[in-house]
Structures are given as C-alpha cells and as structure tokens.
Amino acid sequence: MAGDEETFEMTEEQITVVRDVFDNYVGEDVYLSVKKLGDIMKDLGYNLKKQQIRSLMETCDADGSGTLDFDEFLPLVAHEMKKKEDEKFYFNLFRILDKKKRGWIGVNDMRYILEGMSKELELTTEEIDDMITDIDEDGNGQVSFQEFLTLMTSE
C-alpha cells in the first residue's frame, strides 16, 4: 500500500467519515484487530474474504504489531476506494464494448480490440494470443466482465 505508485486522494469529508467509523470500532483500544478489520471493511462496503483481510493486515501493519492504528488503516481504505473506482471505470468500458448487451464480449471481438491497441501497448501478435488464452479462463469463447477486469487490472 505504502509503495503504490498511484494514490487515491480522499476529501477531508471522506477522511472524517473513515475516522469516525474507525473510532467507533476501536473505542478505547485505538487499534484494529484482524476481526475488527473484517467487520469495519464490511461496514464500509467492501466484502473481503478472510484471506484477503489477513493479507491486508500483513501489508498495512507497518510496525508488525498485529493490529492497525488509524495511520496504517487510512491508506488501506484509500487503496480500496481506488480499486472500486477503477472497477466502476472498467465496468462502464465493458458495457460500451458489449454492443449487443449480452453480458460478455466474444474472444474474436476482444482480439480485435487488443489488436487495435497493440501499437500503443506495444503488444506483439503472440502476446495478444497469450492474453486471449489467459483471459478466457473457462474456454467458452466469451469474455465475462470478471475476466475482462482481470485482464485490465493485471500488471
């Protein structure tokens, strides 16, 4: 989190809301445990699996205490907000590309899109073929939104 190249700028109002929610959860403790982290993230609208919560805790726990203080917690929330904003952007893009409104894009259409972007992205035909193979995880010839999102957000 601390090393993210892109940071999500939170407004003062957003920070205040996050602070209020954080204070409500920690009470006198001033620290979040793993359990409380899961609860607070759920209340903030992020449904994360236990393993994701543990991973977030390990990533954000700068002092290795096994708990998070507010200064460790705030960047985590900003990171999750950025991910949610990105997902919304890619969902809207997917809807535009899904011209027939079927809920999926054919792999041939996806190939055409990637080929159109190949010069900008510096992709070879072989790399595009590999991407198509990787993106169509279930091999049904259709790229679902989740498969599209995975492709667009992978490094």
UniProtKB/TrEMBL annotation:
GO cellular component: myosin II complex
Organism: Owenia fusiformis
Record GO terms (molecular function): calcium ion binding
Keywords recorded for this protein, A-Z: Calcium, Repeat
Domain of life: Eukaryota
Protein name in UniProt: Uncharacterized protein
The organism's taxonomic lineage, starting at the top: Eukaryota, Metazoa, Spiralia, Lophotrochozoa, Annelida
